[in-house]
Automatic annotation (TrEMBL):
PANTHER family: THREONINE--TRNA LIGASE, CHLOROPLASTIC_MITOCHONDRIAL 2, THREONINE-TRNA LIGASE. InterPro entries: Thr/Ala-tRNA-synth_IIc_edit. GO terms for molecular function: nucleotide binding; threonine-tRNA ligase activity. The keyword Protein biosynthesis applies. This is Threonine--tRNA ligase. Keywords: Protein biosynthesis. GO terms for biological process: threonyl-tRNA aminoacylation. The lineage of its organism: unclassified sequences, metagenomes, ecological metagenomes. Gene3D superfamilies: 3.30.54.20, Threonyl-trna Synthetase, Chain A, domain 2. The keyword Protein biosynthesis applies.
Amino acid sequence: MIEESKNQEHRPLDLVRHSTAHVMAQVVLSMFPEAKLGIGPAIDDGFYYDFDLPRSLTPDDLEAIEARMKESIKSAYMFQYQEVTVEEAREIF
């Protein structure tokens, strides 16, 4: 995804929210392989993700997703961040 950062003051928090959305998507797909991913943007007070699932998530599902997200984060997967110009990003992607 190529996007130009508009608000440098909130950029670190936006990166955390964006990365957390990716962690959640990974966990949901591992628990529900048939899930289809929608959008999952960072928003002003967090993030959300749309999933197309064969059934609604239950409170127990949400607790399990949260627990697995915490496990995933503790495993210290590497997130790489590279700041580039819009032109450089277009060349990469």
